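Crash report, auto-generated. Payload:
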Amino acid sequence: MAKAIPTRDEDYSLWYNELVKKAGLAENSQVRGCMVIKPYGFAIWEKMQQALDQMFKDTGHENAYFPLFIPKSFLSREADHVEGFAKECAVVTHYRLKTDESKKGVVVDPDARLEEELIIRPTSETVIWDSYKNWIQSYRDLPLKINQWANVVRWELRTRLFLRTAEFLWQEGHTAHATKQEAIEETELMLGVYADFVENFMAVPVIKGVKTASERFAGAVDTFCIEAMMQDKKALQAGTSHFLGQNFAKAFNVKFASKEGKEEFVWGTSWGVSTRLMGALIMAHSDDDGLVLPPKLAPIQVAVVPIYKTDEELSKITKVVNGLSSELKANGISVKYDDRDTHKPGWKFAEYELKGVPARIAIGPRDLENGTVEIARRDTKEKSTIALENVLNHITNLMEEMQTSIYDKALDFRTENTYQADSYEEFKKLVEKGFVYAHWDGTDETEEKIKEETKATIRCIPFDQKKEDGKCIFSGNPSTGRVLFAKAY
Amino acid sequence: MAKAIPTRDEDYSLWYNELVKKAGLAENSQVRGCMVIKPYGFAIWEKMQQALDQMFKDTGHENAYFPLFIPKSFLSREADHVEGFAKECAVVTHYRLKTDESKKGVVVDPDARLEEELIIRPTSETVIWDSYKNWIQSYRDLPLKINQWANVVRWELRTRLFLRTAEFLWQEGHTAHATKQEAIEETELMLGVYADFVENFMAVPVIKGVKTASERFAGAVDTFCIEAMMQDKKALQAGTSHFLGQNFAKAFNVKFASKEGKEEFVWGTSWGVSTRLMGALIMAHSDDDGLVLPPKLAPIQVAVVPIYKTDEELSKITKVVNGLSSELKANGISVKYDDRDTHKPGWKFAEYELKGVPARIAIGPRDLENGTVEIARRDTKEKSTIALENVLNHITNLMEEMQTSIYDKALDFRTENTYQADSYEEFKKLVEKGFVYAHWDGTDETEEKIKEETKATIRCIPFDQKKEDGKCIFSGNPSTGRVLFAKAY
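Recovered output after restart:
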């Protein structure tokens, strides 16, 4: 692996971009802002999908699929929604091409203009609530708890692989309930599912909270979120869960007959996470040598590299490795034996470091003699010589330990870089260095001013906010608790 | 379940449409030609996806994801390809909406016109080969065996749920090889995977063969296909695998350095199956009472319905059912216990018949006394009284037996409705009744004339075609073997 990447200190942004490309995760396509997710990147995303999908099903949700296209008029039905999404959407206006008369290619056929333009979904509330109108008549049809895995398009001006792309992959849950209380509980439940996933699979600690009005989803009554700290101390919003009130039910006229026979509007929620999580995963843990993947999401958990000079040595090593691999695989550990003769062991070591494979086993002639292997763990780079009969046990423990240890490291990092500010002067200094908890007067104006002057935003009003009387760092007006500020992706 | 569907004899086409809707599989959306796949339909599609995905991985393929959008100019690079796909594609011309001045909604912002229009992918050869250009330099980078699960759009004029929709879900495999031979072997391998899946999971027998030139994929050298017979005796193309030769490699300039150091164009294949398979599954097996699902693809394999008058009876039944369910689930059988008090047992029986649940267990007070349950199988509607301790064994065998028996029934049906014709007069009569093997002179003209006059097409030149001298039924010109004709979906 001669392909070195820049260090984080040199250029954090370039480090990220190069890492994503060189580790084979994704690359830009010829279409502006659209990425190609390469096989290794997609394998990580698949592991994320599987874990999340199971969590959704375990909490009573079913998958379905709704159209890619949204009639232009649907967007306008909910006033805030159209305001939020009309500005950045891809619009289909025609349904046919024809041969150019100058024969150099094809052109849009002007006769094939759509009567009503179609929007490529930026999110599917409108098209889904239009269906729910027909699916919901009575309280017996509720709750309706549906999720879809889909691609969506938001025409972003500045794009970055995984973090912000014109097309991205995501899941969007859309639920309908008979009561406000039940819808709020669902919104909280799904934020909890996201926090559980991000902390326990991605090994990234998160702060749960509620967004301020200005950062709310367009069309929601309340947006709950989880916020994570990246290694450059910026915040990344890792998932959102929205309480929609009756906004979409009213916009699409979705009513139900209650047990008492009364007609009422339905209460809604929606919630989503996207391939942006890949960006969070990469930026939270990786180092200057490449990716660091938590074992639960690593497509390959153990890479085995033989070290040999002669074919005879290789064949002896291969025999031992085959036994070892079977044993590991039978215990649910994914193993890749890399016996390619086209690359040297050192190249392979660097390659698996770049790709974030949690454990690397090297085995050479001396190991054969001693009945041992060398095991290197990716996160700390520690190496240990382990007797063959103890490898399964060692690897099993190592996977658990790394999962915890990667999380702990990220949590320590966040703790070390989280501050409290009690004056605006102090705030301006500290917010350059990490997360800052500070008092805010609750107004849009103050929030906007602070953003203008410092580029920091209110990430959330934390769920675990302590009641504490104080004064807004900007206006000096009274406040009853601190909110979380940070610069963000 | 008061919602009866028409019988197949009354109106086969209406029977299909109503079945799809009433069984909760799919419905039309407000967007012309785009369907909503409802949770029960999607659960079946998920089971298909899981089985196929595993088969692709077992044959050495990796998943990835390529952009939804294709620059208009890409389509034109391969002459046949653009000819085949330009006529029916959705075209994105703008990337923003703005508020209408008359305030009634939003309109396309004329200032946000794209420099080059984007096509919603009808298939992804062009965008993928454009990436392959950068991924392939040397023989060491080959073979490249990639699959993607995606939505695609083809602007069809007449659409039908699952069978032909503007947007559909599919997988598309795209592989690149160093030699022609290897690419042909891949094309055959994947057709074999499809045949294996359709026969052994969907329980639908297929005929493997090669398409005539006129039915070939636009841009392929050869298209292999599997063809299945539906209950109205029409053919349905269930999957295709294309040998692309060097067509896309040449169009996108994808070359590799061979072992000998020579620059050569890469050989390609592509292959796909889509949500159309849902249509095949439904039409091949279902009856006038609803769906008949092969156990391997049934989201619910066993539905349990309690029959009771008092709460005390229900609670005794529930206790027995809980034990039974655990036992079945522990053996990999999916079970749904339907103890809703909002519906009567008869309604539930009809509901599970409509939904094609392979086995239904009914259990009432007399069963409790006798230590038995009643098991009804969906395909034959036979009922048996089975002792509690034998239920697991009975159900396990029943699932296997039904899987085979549903396949055998479909195979018998196809055999009974397959003919040989030796004259055009005979052909015209027989092709109204099913599949017909007949001699053809190998020309486009004859194929086209027969299609015009009878609406029957050549489904394929079967792989197992017997060498047999004969005369073309239409032209009388010599032929060396029979091809398969049928009317088709």
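Post-recovery validation: Chain B has 14 helices and 27 strands.
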